[in-house]
TrEMBL record:
<dbReference type="InterPro" id="IPR001650">
    <property type="entry name" value="Helicase_C-like"/>
</dbReference>
<dbReference type="GO" id="GO:0006281">
    <property type="term" value="P:DNA repair"/>
</dbReference>
<dbReference type="InterPro" id="IPR014001">
    <property type="entry name" value="Helicase_ATP-bd"/>
</dbReference>
<dbReference type="GO" id="GO:0005524">
    <property type="term" value="F:ATP binding"/>
</dbReference>
<dbReference type="GO" id="GO:0003678">
    <property type="term" value="F:DNA helicase activity"/>
</dbReference>
<feature type="domain" description="Helicase ATP-binding">
    <location>
        <begin position="315"/>
        <end position="482"/>
    </location>
</feature>
<dbReference type="GO" id="GO:0016787">
    <property type="term" value="F:hydrolase activity"/>
</dbReference>
<dbReference type="Pfam" id="PF19833">
    <property type="entry name" value="RecG_dom3_C"/>
</dbReference>
<keyword id="KW-0238">DNA-binding</keyword>
<dbReference type="InterPro" id="IPR027417">
    <property type="entry name" value="P-loop_NTPase"/>
</dbReference>
<dbReference type="InterPro" id="IPR012340">
    <property type="entry name" value="NA-bd_OB-fold"/>
</dbReference>
<keyword id="KW-0378">Hydrolase</keyword>
<dbReference type="Pfam" id="PF00270">
    <property type="entry name" value="DEAD"/>
</dbReference>
<dbReference type="InterPro" id="IPR045562">
    <property type="entry name" value="RecG_dom3_C"/>
</dbReference>
<dbReference type="GO" id="GO:0003677">
    <property type="term" value="F:DNA binding"/>
</dbReference>
<dbReference type="InterPro" id="IPR011545">
    <property type="entry name" value="DEAD/DEAH_box_helicase_dom"/>
</dbReference>
<keyword id="KW-0347">Helicase</keyword>
Amino acid sequence: MTRLEDRPLTEVLHPQTAKALSRHLGLETVGDLLEHLPRRYLPRGELTSFAELREGQEVSLISRVLSVHTRSLHTRRGSIAEVTVTDQLDPAGTGPAPAPDTAAARLDGLAGTDIGVAPADPGQTMTLSFFNAWTAAKDLHPGDHVMFSGKVSEYRGRLTLTNPHYAVLTDLAAAADPQAAQAPIPVYPATAKYTTDRIAAAVAAVLDGTDLTQLEDPVPDALRRRHRLMPIAAAYEAAHRPDDEEQPHRGLRTFRYREALILQTVLARRAHRWESRRTSAHPAREDGLLAAFDAALPFRRTDGQVRVGEEIAADLAGTRPMNRLLQGDVGSGKTLVALRAMLQVADAGAQAALLAPTEVLAGQHLRSLTAALGDLAAPTGPVHVALLSASQPAAAKRQTLLDIATGAAQIVVGTHALLGEQVIFENLGLVVVDEQHRFGVAQRHALSGSDQAPAHRLVMTATPIPRSVAMTVFGDLETSVLDELPAGRREVATHVVSLAAHPGWEQRIWQRAREEAQAGHQVFVVVPTVEDGGPARPGTGAPLQSVEGLSARLAGMPELAGVRIGILHGRVPGEEKTRIMQEMAAGRIDLLVATTVIEVGVDVPNATLMVIMDADRLGISTLHQLRGRIGRGSLPGTCLLVTEQEEDGPSMQRLHAVASTRDGFALSLADLEQRREGDILGASQSGTHSTLKTLSVLRHPQIIAQARADARELVAEDPELSRWPDLAAAVERADSDEASRYLERG
């Protein structure tokens, strides 16, 4: 049986209306229309101030008719109705608050209509010209309150609404129904060809013509009572036809909780299924590889590293497979924590895999792990760290695959190549996923060990994320946070360099680069594109800086004579990337011009200067990551955010936010606040629409936290949700729908 939500609008509305809703708004079903919620509400009895109108706005405004006059046109046949309206109430200041007269409301477009008011006018009257004079004169009368909808434009120095729709709001309905006199008027997201009043009429037809109690209501009765939520049918009525100003808020709260509960129940069931499996325990040994590694550490671990290490060690020692999220700021030591976990697993005779998103990062991890292990990873040492990547020579790849299959390689670092069917581990005990947001759901699960003994999983994020986002994106994972930086990290000074205001400063940038190179330090220069001819800068049309163009220009500068310049970008072959990064780390390259391929994982302790050209093209998280590539050793660093934007340009706020703090937790929140909700959850990357329509992971953390607790309670009580069939059906759809599977990626 078809759910009411899935019934086509053609079955409940006039075919032409259903066709128009589909064509103009993409609404196909009853559920689509019901979930097309008003974007705001106009208070009934309060008129819209004309002074608030701005050119280009799509507006719906309520005004009072003062007079209606009809006259003949001079240049062609026909007549025109001139209607004068005001944004002031009647002389008494109040009057019968009008309510919609559904019989009289005109929901048709009125061609050839102009509404004019001088922009400098305080906005008390406007003159409306209707070229369908007979219709307007018949519908509009002095004293009527009328809602007009259209786009504000300017004509001959006066603001104009071209071809607005209108709906007459009379006081007759108010006399018959005093409560209706207080009802707010919903204003819907609309288009020029399908306006808010026409949408309201369609919604009213669905509300009146269907039995909303047949709608699926996923929220169990006990939770609805506990949180004082509305039944879903009442919530739709409250949102679309509210009796008072409070009802829309109650309806929205119900919708938000419903969305949060469905998503959190999806994640709670996944966590329950994972936790119900059993795996091999890998307890720590007092005299093993991990103990030897800790004894050789030349520094003291931070309190956070100790605390998180104990959490992970306890998970690995148990038979319930670990499923943990490790997040921390740039440079907080996540890799050290992960390496200690891998050594604990190796002590137990199992293998660990570290999955990296790029070959550059995989190669960097190999070098970092090998260097950190010291003699333990020497050719004759007890730990064999292997690398597997797509660009490896065939012979090297065959040897690595053999070492993985025989267990000779205790730690395997790789890219997507690790996910191949030909990769067979002898005994995979731990999977570490670095920069989780680069991998899809299927890829996270591809490395899961055997069905009998699934591998423990540790997911590391590039930068911190707010708790509400973590609960939504990684809701099926336990979370550990590294909230302090290791001692000895040097300060990095960050400055915004506006070449629009100070074009001469660019020369000083390259002079500073020469000074760093002459002092024996390394310099990173990051640009947005690989080659010339790419996208242009918004507003100026000038091309963005490119690796090829800028590196050639720098090579010819007298200021940089003798400075060894290298380039790195995504098109460079894998082996060449590795060679370039090794040369950079060894000090044989002074200045590296690169794309954001160096964003994560690159470790060159001697690098002291980061120059980011066209920095306004990059997001806060990326800028913070790039800055984290310097100041990693004993030397202080400088990061220059170079932009052609004017000081009041739209991206300058973002750049100044990065320059003002190195607190990754604060910057992550600022970054997410500037994004659309779908971007936060990954919808823009997956090519799907966000499943969140009313819930915001940033603005509604309390609802998410409550729903998470409730979902875990429900799943613990009944993992199959058989007691709540509506919730079970909604969760099943969300869990199997591609539009929600992206929630598992980070």
